[in-house]
């Protein structure tokens, strides 16, 4: 048993959109969510949930699912698979850290995100300009 819970918080909820501009017209312009960052190269944009640290991530190439923040993707995979879960994909490096997908023993898909490299930095239009260490 882990000394601390493995799943720390919901980092983001990913929602599939046909293209970022259409997604932004709906989630930002119509529903009022503030754009935090946009990465056209990845086909993703993050929007603020004002009463939570959880982001809405709209994406052109990812299925809808929650993304769980973990301290270490490698350790989380080890604990989850030892408890009967299964590694589905990864781990792989992403601009802000590492990510992997696992399933629990019941078939629920869990996306594990480690922000070991930091958080996106952006320009005044929300375009990603780099990554800075978390404070």
Q: Topology, pairings included?
A:
Layout: E1 9-16, H1 20-30, E2 35-39, E3 44-48, E4 55-59, E5 65-69, H2 73-82, E6 86-94, E7 97-103, E8 109-114, E9 119-122, E10 128-132
Parallel strand pairs: 1-4, 5-8
Antiparallel strand pairs: 1-5, 2-3, 3-4, 6-7, 7-8, 9-10
Give a short summary of the structure.
This protein is of the alpha+beta class and 135 residues long. The protein has two helices and ten strands. The longest helix has 11 residues, at 20-30.
Polypeptide structure, described:
Helices cover 16% and strands 44% of the residues. The chain is α+β, with helices and mostly antiparallel strands. The protein has a single domain, classed as 2,3-Dihydroxybiphenyl 1,2-Dioxygenase, domain 1. The strands form 2 sheets. An 8-stranded mixed β-sheet has the order 2-3-4-1-5-8-7-6. β7 and β8 form a beta hairpin. The protein is globular and about 45 Å long. The mean pLDDT is 92.
């Amino acid at each position: 048993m882990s000394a601390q819970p493995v799943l720390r918080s919901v980092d983001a909820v990913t929602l599939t959109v046909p293209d970022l501009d259409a997604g932004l017209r709906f989630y930002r312009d119509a529903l009022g969510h503030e754009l935090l960052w946009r990465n056209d190269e990845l086909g993703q944009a993050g929007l603020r949930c004002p009463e939570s640290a959880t982001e809405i991530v709209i994406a052109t190439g990812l299925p809808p699912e929650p993304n769980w923040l973990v301290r270490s993707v490698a350790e989380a995979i080890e604990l989850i698979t030892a408890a009967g879960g299964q590694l589905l994909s990864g781990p792989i490096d992403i601009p802000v850290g590492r990510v992997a997908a696992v399933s629990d023993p019941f078939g629920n898909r869990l996306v594990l995100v480690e922000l070991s490299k930091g958080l996106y930095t952006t320009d005044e239009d929300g375009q990603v300009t780099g990554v800075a260490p978390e404070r």
